[in-house]
Specification:
By secondary structure, the chain is mostly helical. Helix content is 88%, strand content 0%. It is built from 5 helices and no strands. It has helices spanning 3-32, 35-38, 44-57, 61-75, 77-111. Helix 1 packs antiparallel against helix 3, helix 1 (3-32) packs parallel to helix 4 and helix 4 (61-75) packs antiparallel against helix 5. The longest helix is centred in the last third of the chain and has 35 residues, at 77-111. It is elongated and about 55 Å long.
């Protein structure tokens, strides 16, 4: 695989890891929020439109910023910021593991 092709696959893999993870976290969270906090959340259609537009046009890390804002918006600064940071770190770690796996598979394919 050429370096340009590898970079394209890395971007696609990052999109494939980050977007579903952010959607999964927000969907799971909305099912478990009490009604008063759920009322502070984004409307579902607005949230989905923003996340999809950011995924399409910008770097996937902007989605993580949206996740952080979502957590702060639904819980306030003191509870939402640590939770948003934790979710962001977990998703970035998942993306890093996927990228390392891709590089290892590429190196293995060159040796064979």
């Amino acid at each position: 695989m050429t370096p340009g092709n590898l970079e394209l696959v890395q971007v696609l893999l990052s999109w494939g890891v980050v977007l579903p993870s952010v959607f999964a976290v927000t969907a799971w969270d909305e099912r478990h929020l009490p009604p008063d906090r759920l009322a502070r959340s984004w409307p579902r259609q607005s949230r989905d439109a923003v996340l999809f537009a950011l995924w399409l046009f910008l770097h996937p890390l902007y989605l993580l910023l949206c996740l952080l804002v979502y957590c702060v918006r639904t819980r306030g600064w003191l509870r939402g910021l640590p939770l948003g940071l934790l979710a962001t770190v977990v998703i970035v770690a998942l993306d890093a593991v996927a990228q390392l796996g891709l590089e290892a598979a590429n190196d293995w394919a060159r040796m064979v």
